[in-house]
Write a structure and sequence with these properties.
The complex is a heterodimer of chains A (481) and B (268).
Chain A lengths: L4 H24 E6 L2 E6 L1 H22 L3 H19 L3 H22 L1 H19 L5 H13 L8 H26 L8 H18 L3 H23 L4 H21 L1 H4 L5 E2 L22 H4 L7 H26 L2 H11 L1 H6 L4 H27 L1 E2 L6 H14 L4 H17 L7 H15 L32
Antiparallel strand pairs in A: 1-2, 3-4
Helix pairs in contact in A: 1-2, 2-3, 2-4, 3-4, 7-13, 7-16, 7-17, 7-18, 8-9, 8-10, 8-16, 9-16, 14-16, 17-18
Chain B lengths: L3 E10 L2 E11 L4 E5 L6 H8 L7 E8 L2 E4 L5 H8 L1 E3 L12 H7 L2 H7 L4 H5 L2 H20 L15 H13 L5 E5 L7 H18 L2 E5 L3 H7 L2 E6 L2 E6 L1 H6 L1 H8 L10
Parallel strand pairs in B: 3-8, 3-9, 6-7, 7-8
Antiparallel strand pairs in B: 1-2, 1-4, 4-5, 9-10
Helix pairs in contact in B: 3-7
The chains are: A mainly alpha (481), B alpha/beta (268).
Chain lengths: 481, 268
């Protein structure tokens, strides 16, 4: 039986009542600094407007459910109109009205389009994600690399964009590293930021105390982080799931607190500045070098441009990302990669097949940590400054979100998720304090829409081709995306 | 010399004696079945043998050529890797989200890991590694062919029907190239056709691979038809052992497990 209009009205009223209860304390009351202390003020007109939005929105969506599409679209348009009017007095209410109205209109059209439209869209999404995880996208990957190589020379590319691109790629590295531990080996690590910190601080300290440069510290940072990964691995070998998560969480905090409190070595909360930039074959990117040493632009007889240094770091990062992609794709198809996945799937069965869980877990921790260390070194040189503040738990959470949103075990998915989670919030800086709100909303949306991550399809590490299977085994798949 | 000699194996959980002073021998290329009522300690014997439990006392000696392995002193994964004991589980334990072929390749981890030089030559793609991988896939294919899953090699293991999952688990265990294969209720949940196919598969393994088979089974059709030796457990102790025919007539076995109507069973 179709719901009557009366019951629709009832639904909409209930939704409004719920939103009123929520919004009276959240929006209706606020504090103002006045002489003599804080005083409480109210803004109930805004609350009633917001409640009205909810009423109209809910009613329109319900209308579309009983087939009254035009009326429902009209409701959405009313919402947009209300938003436009209120935008002048209150920008947030404006955004909420227009955005909400747009969502209502889209939702109504989506519902009224029937299963045909929905299926087509779903099909396309399926196809794209199948293709992205099929390993057949090598041409696309190649084009992407060319595009990225040319990226610094696009007309719209300025220093800020380049810097953001380096940051996003750093998170891609972090995401891939954590993906080995969480996505492949199935070990939930909430303290991954520790390895990021170790990479950054080992570069900072080696540069500060021993005057070592980027190219020495990059492998050193990676190696130290990997070593720490093994050290962390030992005590947590017997733990799984929630318990492992708690211990790794503690471990991440320990590293940060050591960095804060070991003031003699790390200068504590003040951090370490003056971390050197990478050099090109020993040539520095500076306007004037220390005496007797040529700089990059002098050597090549170019005019000095400060952006060259950023472009160079961009290329280093890009190179490392490409290398990491190759490495992880390859290692996933090797016995060790399959052993990681087997351990994730069923540890008891793995042991019964003679796999040594200790070595396999430690190798996953070590390799995952190594990428964290590399990313940390890049971070240190990009910022020129490290302090413990950069390595709080929220960092671990963001990296984990990148992995989970991207789809555990999927390389391309993680890269896309890094772009969305790191790139978009930077682009949307204009939203100011609603930035993190929209960040959260985005994560909720992705998880509601694709609960297993953007690209959740796992591509097999080895494929038997049906036509040839009678005679001989063949070919390995190109590996994961 | 017997392949496996179990002497005075005892396993206690607190006050409960799950396995009580059990001794038996078994040979290569023979099928030994352990039967008994639920809770008799059959799976506990398996878990002791394969290192999932550490036996309270007793010894388990596996002899292969000049090598002898004291199983009671070895870690679980080493028993599988070095002594060569493979097992399947009462509740199937495949790697559900990996493909059928991948399941069989994981089982060849030991030799593949060595061939990939702990990933170094694998990363470089050296010819020796490629040959080894090719060989491993070929070996897996042989087994897929044997269990009739060749055309489903690329499907996820979890998508297979129950009976095929059972067979795949056996094939996976065989891909470790074991000396002794322990099967925990391989016929559980199989229909009569599948159960017959299972008998064929187990006979085939006995005849062609020379592996010793130790199985726990409730399906008397399977047990009586293919076993060379039957061991009957009740409350953790051995109450009878010998050929299927002799065990079937043993009054103690009938009382504890088989029941009266089973004496009329004529072997078809």
């Amino acid at each position: 039986m179709r719901p009557s209009h009366l019951s629709l009205l009832k639904n909409a009223l209930i939704a409004s009542a719920v939103s009123a209860v929520l919004m009276i304390p959240l929006i209706g009351i606020y504090t103002v600094q006045e002489t003599g202390g804080l005083s409480i003020k109210t803004r109930f007109p805004e609350v009633s407007l917001a409640v009205l939005y909810v009423f109209v929105g809910r009613f329109s969506i319900d209308l579309s459910a009983i087939g009254k599409t035009p009326l429902a679209v009209f409701g959405g348009l009313v919402l947009i109109l209300l938003g436009t009017i209120s935008a002048e007095s209150n920008s947030l209410l404006g955004v909420a009205g227009i955005g909400g109205g747009a969502v209502v209109v889209l939702l109504v059209l989506w519902n009224s389009g029937g299963s045909g439209v929905q299926e087509t869209v779903q099909n396309h999404i399926q196809k794209v994600s199948a293709w992205l995880t099929s390993g057949r996208q090598s041409q696309f990957g190649f084009a992407l690399i060319i595009l990225l190589i040319l990226f610094p020379f696009f007309p719209f590319t300025d220093r800020w964009t380049l810097d953001l691109a380096i940051l996003v790629m750093t998170y891609v590295l972090l995401g891939w590293g954590l993906n080995i531990v969480v996505g492949l080996a199935g070990l939930l690590d909430l303290g991954y930021v520790a390895f990021y910190a170790v990479g950054a601080y080992s570069f900072a300290l080696l540069a500060f105390y021993y005057d070592l440069g980027f190219w020495v510290c990059l492998p050193a940072g990676a190696a130290l982080a990997a070593l720490l990964g093994i050290l962390l691995g030992f005590p947590v070998l017997r733990l799984r799931g929630d318990y492992l998560a708690i211990v790794t969480l503690g471990f991440g905090e320990m590293i940060r607190i050591v960095l804060i409190n070991w003031v003699e070595l790390t200068k504590g909360p003040n951090g370490i500045s003056g971390i050197p930039k990478p050099t090109f074959m020993g040539l520095e990117f500076r306007r004037r070098s220390t005496e007797g040493v040529e700089t990059f632009h002098q050597f090549f007889d170019l005019p000095y441009r400060s952006i060259d240094r950023v472009i160079f770091l961009f290329y280093i990062t890009l190179g490392l990302v490409i290398l990491a992609n190759w490495f992880i794709k390859k290692i996933r198809t090797l016995p060790i990669g399959r052993a990681w996945e087997a351990l994730r799937e069923d540890e008891i069965a793995s042991r019964a097949l003679g796999l040594n869980p200790t070595n396999i877990k430690l190798s996953a921790f070590a390799l995952g940590a190594m990428f964290g260390g590399v990313a940390g070194t890049l971070f240190a040189t990009r910022q020129g400054f490290v302090s413990p503040e950069s390595f709080t738990f929220i960092e671990s959470a963001i990296i984990l979100s990148v992995v989970v949103l991207g789809g555990m075990g999927s390389q391309a998915g993680v890269a896309i998720a890094a772009l969305i989670l790191i790139g978009l919030p930077e682009w949307f800086r204009e939203l100011e304090h609603y930035r993190m709100l929209s960040f959260g909303a985005l994560m909720v949306l992705i998880m509601a829409w694709r609960p297993r991550g953007l690209l959740s399809r796992r591509s097999p590490t080895v494929v038997l081709h049906p036509d040839q299977s009678k005679e001989k085994p063949i070919g390995l798949a190109n590996g994961p995306s | 010399m017997a392949l496996l000699e179990v002497r005075n194996l005892t396993m206690r959980f607190g006050g409960l004696v799950a396995v009580d002073d059990l001794s038996f021998d078994m040979e290569s290329a023979q099928i030994t079945s352990i039967i008994g009522p639920n809770g008799a300690g059959k799976t506990t014997v398996f878990n002791c043998l394969t290192g999932f439990y550490t036996a309270t006392s007793g010894s388990m000696l596996l002899t292969a050529g000049l090598d002898t392995f004291h199983l009671e002193k070895m870690a679980g994964y080493k028993i599988a890797r070095d002594a060569g004991i493979a097992r399947t589980f009462q509740n199937i334990r495949l790697f559900p989200q990996m493909t059928v072929l991948e399941n069989l390749l994981v089982a060849q981890h030991k030799s593949l890991m060595r061939a990939s030089m702990w990933s170094i030559s694998g990363l470089l793609g050296l010819p020796a590694w490629k040959r080894a991988e090719f060989g491993a896939i070929e070996f897996a294919q042989e087994w897929l062919d044997k269990i009739g899953l060749l055309n489903r090699a690329n499907l996820d293991a979890e998508s297979l029907p129950y009976g095929d999952q059972r067979k795949l688990e056996i094939a996976r265990a065989m891909c470790t190239k074991p000396r002794l294969l322990c099967l925990d209720e391989p016929a559980a949940g199989l229909n009569p056709t599948e159960s017959r196919e299972l008998n064929q598969l187990l006979n085939d393994i006995r005849e062609h691979s020379g592996v010793g088979l130790l199985l726990i089974e409730h399906d008397m059709n399977v047990v009586m038809e293919i076993s060379d030796q039957v061991i009957v457990l009740d409350y953790g102790s051995k109450i009878a052992s010998g050929s299927p025919a002799s065990v079937r007539k043993d009054p103690a076995v009938i009382r504890a497990y088989l029941g009266d109507e089973y004496t009329k069973w004529d072997g078809d």
